[in-house]
Amino acid sequence: MALKHNLLLAFYGDDFTGSTDALEFLTLAGAKTMLFLKDPTPELLQQFENLDAIGVAGMTRATTPSEMKEILSESFQVLKALQPKHVHYKVCSTFDSSKEIGNIGTAIETGLSIFNNAFTPILVAAPNLGRYSAFGNLFAKMGIGSTGEIFRLDRHPSMQNHPITPAYESDLMKHLSLQTETEMGLIDVTDLEQPLSFIEKKIAHLIASGKQIIFFDAMYEYQMKIIGQVLEGLTPKNLPLFSVGSSGIEKSLGDFWKTQHLIQNANLNEAQLEPCAPLLVLSGSVSPITAAQINWAVENGFKEIAISPELLNDSPEAQDVIQNCQAQLVSYLKQGTSVIMHTAKGPNDPRVKQSKAYFRSQGLDEMAIRSQTAVVFGGILGQIAKAALLEIPIKRLVIAGGDTSSYVARALDIVAVQMIASVYTGAPICKAYAPNSPVHHIEVNLKGGQVGDQFYFKAIEQGQKIS
Fold first, then answer.
1. Of 266, 267, 257, which Cα lies nearest the Cα of 86?
2. Contact 251, 128 (CB under 8 A)
């Protein structure tokens, strides 16, 4: 079946909220883009005409290396068959990963074997998101789309206490060296101030010396277009260029494509958002940023439903509690009251330790606990919400938390999303495609743990554009 698309880029996101980040930058650059929750079949792609880019929202950030290799080998082959100019493995802008969970080294090695490129470029920095890289070290603002303080990654209050992949190292090459033995090089911030020919020669030298991974620094917005021009120039004939990094990849390429008039949909017709109550928030985030947002919202009119670790036990008693949560949710929504259903309020919430203790009692080791927490809590949030929304429909939904978001979305039977409006940078409002589900065609906002200021949920309820 012939496809009606000439794709500039196809990306695979390691979680759902991070994937909408990439979706946003492509859309704002003028690229007509759809984000799917599984590898798109030709039949599914036929439902959407004239796409410039596609994405797949995966779940590999919370999986083991062996699981990642199996998943990505299949997905990368699917994306390669679509013949885009670029294939991007999209990771969090704080490079969340470890040897045991979300191993980015495994993704790179898999990509090198499938795409047969001479090297893999890596761009983690995204200055417009408050993510900066200097001489290979990553710095991050406290809260994307906020005025928070900037910290070196290993001293970042949220990333230091990440429940699955805490940051112990700001040097990206040192961090990645724990996940792969592949040789690495760097195009640093001073290189980016040199002529394009200098950068190209340095890349050629690094490749000739055996570097199969090349990191790119970025500190300033104007440097993104330079990197985009470099990446576009490195695209092999008849093969996609495989890259790894944050949505800085989409930002850099998009900035360059616009100057070259490679995108035809240059004027995004964004939807005019209106206040929308009741708003439902499903949060599996343990970020202190999200915790502050929950607390502020509850103090200002939202209701909350706390998901207890006792629900992890699939017993009749736990099912009764789930039914009670569902009934409580329906009651609040019928009153027109916005609701936040959450599994934790920050890393110090007692429920975090209680959940770990439960999984240990089931014989799981730390590695399995990390991934299973996202799987089970994501499923519970989605299950309760789906049942409640069959009784009382809503128009706008927020899913918060990178690791759990993919599982929540799948429990809600979401097939794909398309951006319709910006609100906070990195977390757009999207339209959900979910046939036979109560969330079909409603507005969905996907929020990572680091996104937003304390007013976030109220701003989404009111349809306020912050970015």
1. 257
2. yes
The CATH code of the domain that includes 455 is: 3.40.980.20
Could you tell me if 208 and 71 lie in one domain?
yes
CATH of the domain at 120: 3.40.50.10840
- Rounded Cα distance between 327 and 324, Å, is 5
**Same domain flag for 302 and 172:** no
Which of 45, 57, 64 lies closest to 412 in space, CA to CA? 57
pLDDT in tens, 310-364: 898 888 888 999 999 999 999 999 999 999 999 999 999 999 999 999 999 999 9
How many CB atoms are closer than 10 A to CB 351? 18
Banded pLDDT at 211 (limits 50, 70, 90): very high
d(CA 428, CA 443): 10
Mean pLDDT throughout 165-187? 94
- Count up the domains in the chain and report the number: 2
- DSSP string spanning 449-463? TTB--TTHHHHHHHT
Q: Which domain holds residue 174?
A: 9-260
Strand 184-187 to strand 213-216: parallel, antiparallel, or no bridges (unpaired)?
parallel
Cβ–Cβ < 8 Å for 68, 60 = yes
Q: Is there a single domain that holds both residue 148 and residue 76?
A: yes
